[in-house]
Amino acid sequence: MLASNAGQLLAGPACSATTQVQVPVKFTKRGTYQANKSRVVIKGIAKAPKGVSPRKDKDKWTFQCLQRTAACAP
Q1: Alpha-carbon dihedral sign for residues 43, 14, 3, 21
Q2: Contact between residue 55 and residue 48 where contact means Cβ atoms under 8 Å apart
Q3: What helix, strand, coil percent values describe the chain, rounded to 5?
């Protein structure tokens, strides 16, 4: 579970601290990559102070590990 208090961001645009997310890579017994199982879904809810409309905002981010399509650079 990720939790963050972004109260300092309410004053205007700003960058927050980075967060690392580990995405598991899944393969079948034969070694075939399983794209649908190699992902992490993170849901977020933001709550505004009373008097602000809308008061809540929900978002969802999907991070998926993709297979490399080209060789690594030297």
Answers
A1: positive
A2: yes
A3: 10, 25, 60
